């Protein structure tokens, strides 16, 4: 049972499209390395798990763009937390994926 889901959109402050994509790809690779269940969408990546772990992931998503050369980054994060459980990503979207 997942107690939390977050949606993360990372926008590194760089102008070159290729550099933006490379940085975002590194962020997604990091998310993949965490072992948490996630889905990449066109604007944001949704991740589900426990509150503490997801907050640590959100923090790390701030650091990666800076390490990759962006002078700053904007990150938009949505959090849904319910100690008794949240609807999973699959419960929310499987009906649309035919």
Automatic annotation (TrEMBL):
Q: What is this protein called?
A: Thiamine-binding protein domain-containing protein
Cellular component GO terms, alphabetically? cytosol
Tell me which residues make up the Thiamine-binding protein domain: 7-96
A Pfam family for this UniProt protein? Thiamine_BP
Q: Identify the PANTHER family for this entry.
A: UPF0045 PROTEIN ECM15
> Which InterPro entries did the record assign?
MTH1187/YkoF-like (IPR029756), Thiamine_BP (IPR002767), UPF0045_domain (IPR051614)
Q: Which family does it belong to?
A: Belongs to the UPF0045 family.
């Amino acid at each position: 049972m997942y107690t939390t889901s977050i949606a993360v959109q990372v926008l590194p402050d760089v102008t070159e499209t290729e550099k933006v994509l490379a940085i975002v790809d590194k962020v997604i690779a990091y998310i993949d390395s965490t072992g948490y269940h996630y889905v990449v969408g066109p604007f944001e990546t949704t991740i589900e798990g426990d509150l503490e772990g997801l907050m640590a992931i959100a923090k790390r998503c701030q650091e990666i763009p800076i390490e990759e050369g962006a002078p700053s980054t904007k990150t938009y994060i949505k959090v849904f937390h319910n100690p008794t459980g949240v609807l999973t990503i699959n419960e929310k979207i499987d009906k649309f994926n035919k």
